[in-house]
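hiii, so i know i said id send this last week but things got crazy w the move. better late than never?? heres the sequnce for the chain we talked about at the cafe, plus the structure i predicted for it. fair warning i was half asleep when i ran it
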Amino acid sequence: MDKKVLDWLMEGPAWLKYAVELQLLDLKPDVTPTLQDSSIRKLVDRLKGNSAGVPAIKSGRVHYTESGKAYWDLFFLADIGLTINDLGLEAEAEEIFRFQSREGTFTIPPNVQDNYFCMSAILIASLSRMGYRDDPRVIKYAQAAMSAQMPGGGWDCYGESFSAEGSCPMDDMNILMLLGQYPQYRDNPQLYGAIEHLIAHWEEGTHLYGFGVGKRFRSLQYPAVKYGILRVLDVLSLFPYSVKSRGFQSMLDFVHAKAVNGRYFAESTDMVYTDFDFSQTAEPSRWITFLINRIEKRGEGVK
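okay and structure toks below
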């Protein structure tokens, strides 16, 4: 990556420097400065709290569509590269697993049913990235998701009653976000259908299940609570099959055109995360720039 951009990223806060060193430079940085960062401590405290944290999930007050709550706070900390053990969130992780059925699926208040893999996958993918990848409960969930795959290769909360060949792009993206953490799935042809659905959605510009690829989709926003280009690219970059596709490169080229001297701006913001640079649009965002460089790094060496 460009040295000037890298130097600029390394001038950021401790948590961002940690992510850069860990994920872009393949170093083993000291996590202590990140854990001492006041903004990170606030997120951890919120995750432990009874109003927006993991303990509040059972009350039905925490919904996957709302940023600044357990789903997306955990997602962000996982993106940084922090583990549950680093953050002292072991008890909270166990709270999440209490919603798991014997079959491996999750039924989470207020309305996440056992077949709604796209919703529960947000939490479980984060746990997988945060030290639980080999946990038997996560593996069982991944197997349950695979068993629910539709004939067309994707997923749909409504099952084949809606479209046996099609699938919901949000379902595909969130489930692939989890499965992409596992080497045995990254090159698995069984996932090609879901990958192709996401790429075709971009190329064809169709409106599926209420999800489009218009202005909101194309804007750079974090956390990507809704279906958007940044998270679609991030998920697809986990799979060599998609990285080699014309559609993936088309999406990435579209994002690259937004760069200003190799730096990227948040184009839509959520004021819940005012401690972080992706909550403002006036200056380039180191975090969004990091994420795009991470996508690029994953594609390096894919033939």
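btw The chain has a mean pLDDT of 94. thought thatd interest u
miss u guys!!
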